[in-house]
Design a protein that fits this description.
It is built from eight helices and eleven strands. With 315 residues, the protein is α/β, with parallel strands linked by helices.
Length: 315
Amino acid sequence: MTGAAGDGTHGLQHPARGGDVPLAVVILTHNEEANLPTALASVTGWAGEVWVVDSHSTDRTAAVARAWGAGVVAHDFGGYAAQRTWALRTLPFRCDWVLFLDADESVTPELRDELRRRLAAPPGDVAGFYVKRRFIFLGRWLRHGGYYPVWLLRVVRHRVARCEERGVDEHLLVDGPTERLAHDLLHEDRRPLSRWVERHTRYAQLAAADLARGAAADGVAPRLRGGEPSERSRWWYERVYRRMPLGLRALGYFTYRYLLRGGFLDGREGLIYYVLQALWYRVLIDAYALEARRGTPDRSPGPRVIPRADSPAER
């Protein structure tokens, strides 16, 4: 069930008819053979339809998706936000509601049952639902450091949803009120740690470019009090983190996550993660930003990656 090579807009076909929950699941992929079976197993059989939008994988990603009965469409990768927007505007959804699921994520049974209840008769004015992510790193659930819960807007009415234009850390936006779901979305990458490092090297380049461009006019509005989780997160990033000295802010961020928010309670796996994500990654962003200020061009293409929930520059 593939679209044509290139833009994937020709010959789109619905996936095999799914279960009783009026929810379309969309998974963006590129070489996700190792992660995809778990993601698909968590939504197949109860979600009304499952779509895999693949950026021309060279492994068995597309074959795995078809084997699970998902609709598979190839689409050239033009950016993280652009890929989500293309899916929202192009896929012929039968369902009103859409869940964006990363290939290394899965829906817990508790969240599945909650979605079945809530979407059976949702309030008429609700445009989206936030879910909380449970993040697993090297086999350990990171419960501290401010990484649980992280609230993500993932379930939206596709007709009133859009994605803000950013190189990385893109948020879904909806026209209308939102509510929160009580149960967890599970994140666990089953690929080697080397892929994490490659991916975050590219994320750092994109985050540095976002720093240079500044906030998008139609993106998430920074708001500390009374705002949505994404708005509060953006407030801290725009009003605090970005105004700290280049380079030193990475050390400050690591201190905040690891010491002040109790990241040290997550054991040796947590130490590795906070050093990599809260320190090394942030230093790398600033290094690319400094390089750009000095006019040093970077002509390397970088690894080709798909957006993930564990990577945003402001979390």
